[in-house]
# Entry
Amino acid sequence: MNVFGRIGCRIFQTAFRLAMPFLPYREPERLGSVSEIADLLEKKGIKSAMFVTAAGLRKSGLTAPLEDRLAARGIRCTVYDGTRANPTAANVEEARVSYLAGGCECLIAFGGGSSMDCAKALGARTAYPKKPLSKLRGVLRVLRRIPPLIAVPTTAGTGSEVTLAAVITDEVTRHKYTMNDFTLIPRYAVLDPEATYSLPPSLTATTGMDALTHAVEAYIGRSTTRETRRRALYAVKLIFANIRRAYSDGRDREARANMLDAAYNAGIAFSKSYVGYIHAVAHSLGGQYNIPHGLANSVLMPIVLRDYGAKVHKKLHRMGVAAGVASESDTHADGAEKFISAIEELNRTMNIPARLDGIDGGDIPRMARYAAKEANPLYPVPVLRDAKELERYYRLVMSGKENKQ
# Structure
């Protein structure tokens, strides 16, 4: 990146950092069980609620107990289960039709980050009925209050139950874009470990590594606070202590609860301190090829962290100590390498590949431009990269077969 680009990015990031104490960030109220939702809605006088979920999750029967409990209380329930793995603007518009037809008063996002993103975007469209989502993208575009949103994560990774962000895919261009607004933070987050029991090992692994990516990028960036550093280190400690247990035994209640706690704290950390190029590149890969976000983050993380070099050694060393894979007596360089190697070992242990299949080299320049547009100047990354420089990450993450083409 040229000198003028670097200066412009850093000025923008510094302004945001100085403004952070004055921004209206809030945390959701935490609930410990899905069974508490019916009591909450009854207390609030809500008579009609909308579920936003995925077809597979509903088919599994996971939402049925809550649907039955709401019906028993006389609370109407409209269900939209058409959420895709990478939700699109069309998804949101379909859900909006159901929301209006059902006379709904609140939203219950039941699922992973995709269901929560869809519900947040639906809330935004409800608040702005005359504006398409393309006009609400970016930062601080959704200022009106959205309907009450209750987030029930069935994965421990995205942190969407606590964040101000929603990620939507344009089905025409295949470009992912973000909406970042304080009104999108859910009012309630239901951290019920039993809601994650059915998550298969592969998704337990990649969503858990997604939470780790949130903690790492929040910690190594240039807009941290004492609180975000504390939460990021706490999340890293929990993830390294529990992710293998949750992967090996999906009904390990303690491990599942700790992973939810880690994802929640990592979500708060990155909401305030932002993420970086791992996420920007992963978003473009997800938009182009529908690669699951957690998988893309898992594979990209060691590659990008090593590429940052000495700029991040001290902070990665601290994270390695928190994770229990490095010692205080290590040099910063050695501690950083131990931490990165431990991430790679986690990936191997949980059968996450070292590279991604299906990437077409001809798509790389366009994806890199999308990633650069998302990240610069918003993300306070430790080392700035322009679109041309970001192309390197796509080539490094390609499978060996594709690299030979």
